Structure formats: structure tokens, C-alpha cells
Amino acid sequence: MPQTQRSHNIRPINLSNSDLSAEKKFKLRVKRIHRRRITALSLVMFVIVTAFSSQLYQSHQTKAQTQVQWVQQQHKLQRARSQYRDLSNQVRQLHDAEYLDNLIRYRFNYSHDGEIIYNIPNEANKNLNF
Known about the structure:
By secondary structure, the protein is mainly alpha-helical. It is built from three helices and no strands. It has helices at residues 20-94, 97-108, 123-126.
């Protein structure tokens, strides 16, 4: 297999005891390269963490709004169930002849033969719930 030659020039580094400045230059160059790589990786990690944090915050806000809506719907359901029970109770009472008789007498001022109805204007009479 033939070996391919590299297109860029690589200079061998002379690390003999007589040339310590070259060794120092090499170490400084390696430190600069590592520092750049660490800075670039830190920047990429910061962008990734920021993106995920914003997604997490948005999902938390959506969850909170959904919980508020759920609580509101539960209250609305409770009111509807209470109203349904009240209306069912009224329908059941309307099938009772005695209750129906009393309701007609008090609400519509009906009377039996020979009875006289006296209307007394009063706040207490307005609150009769039949």
C-alpha cells in the first residue's frame, strides 16, 4: 500500500536541552489550543443548557395553566352537580300531591272553598322557597 503524503507542512520540534524556548513555545501553543477548545465547548454547553432550561420553564408554565383550568372545571362541575341534585329534588317533590298543593296555595294564592287569604307584605314572605 502506498502511503499518501500530507499536503501541509509539519515541522519537527527540536526538544533538545539546548533549545528550551522551543519547548516553552510548544507548551504555550498547546495551552492556547486547549483553552480555545474548552471555551468553545463551554459555549456550546451553555447554549444547550439554556435551550433545555427554556423548554423546561415553558412546560412548567403550561402545566401550571392546565392545573388552574382543571381546578376551575372541577368547581364548575361541582356547581352543575349541585344544581342537578336540586332540580332532581324539585322534580321528585312535584310528584308529591301534598307538596304540590302547598306550593300552589302559597305561590299563586289559591284557596279551598270557604277559605279567606290574607296577604301581609313582609320580607319574610318573599323568602318562602317552595
